């Protein structure tokens, strides 16, 4: 690792931070990051960061509020220690689904989080697969959004026969994402039309496209409670799909998600390590975890040297 580049590992995703640092030729900086007895975040950086280029690796995944607060406290500590530049590396951007007003007097929390990160003192943000692209515009500092698609496509191409695949969007909002995968795989596209009655609840309504005798690949950015995913898989099997696999960058897996997936028709769930898998998730044989550490490390290397990162976030 370059002498003036520092990696700080928040507690949300230590294994990913260590893999990134190793790829850069070093290890995360010495730091005591934990909690006081009353639950407040406690941060003490164990080495000088004065005049250095610092990258904080911290997914704002569950427990979201604690990990977000820990990130803000780390940024403040680094700012007060005279770091020359502070980049918040957020493999998963929590609150990203609250990106617009969906009801009267509702917040736009994704914007609030952007304001908090900026106010804390971050100079730049590096992230993967934002739920909504407009979140980049919520910041008044540079935001680089990377995509996990190349890592996932490499695995799909090596594991499944392309001529047997059909890419499926689980809702109309994900069609653009599914089209990108279908184009790169040379596969057909299908769309599930659903109606969501309330948050985390969805009802599958109709299927547009042909999936009979095919391996259906459901593409999404986030798996949360897995209700939509499991319902989509059941609908695809009913329509004659030979098998169903699921792909998502961020495995939030809250509530009954793992239990639902384990008991579902889904053959395999391909996710990345932007969010660490729980013990229950690790015990479920259906999950295949791919690492995004190399693309993040390369982006950090280029940002540090002032080189272009545009080639890393092309997703078309």
How many DSSP helices? 9
Global structural class: alpha/beta
Helix % is: 25-40%
| Rg result | 20 Å
* Spatial strand order of the main sheet: 10-9-8-11-12-13-14
For the secondary structure, the number of strands is 14
Mean pLDDT: 93
The biggest beta sheet is recorded as: 7 strands, mixed
- How far apart lie the N and C ends? 32 Å
What characteristic shape results from the CA principal axes? globular
Strand content: 25-35%
Low-pLDDT runs: none
Give me the strand/helix succession: EHEEEHEHEEHEHEEEHEHEHEH
Outline of the structure:
Helix content is 31%, strand content 28%. The protein has nine helices and 14 strands. The strands form three sheets. Strands 10-9-8-11-12-13-14 form a seven-stranded mixed β-sheet, with helices on both faces.
Task: Map the helices and strands.
Layout: E1 5-9, H1 14-23, E2 31-35, E3 41-45, E4 53-57, H2 64-80, E5 85-90, H3 109-120, E6 124-128, E7 143-146, H4 149-159, E8 165-169, H5 175-185, E9 188-198, E10 201-208, E11 215-223, H6 227-238, E12 243-251, H7 257-262, E13 266-272, H8 279-283, E14 287-290, H9 293-305
Parallel strand pairs: 1-4, 4-5, 5-6, 6-7, 8-9, 8-11, 11-12, 12-13, 13-14
Antiparallel strand pairs: 2-3, 9-10
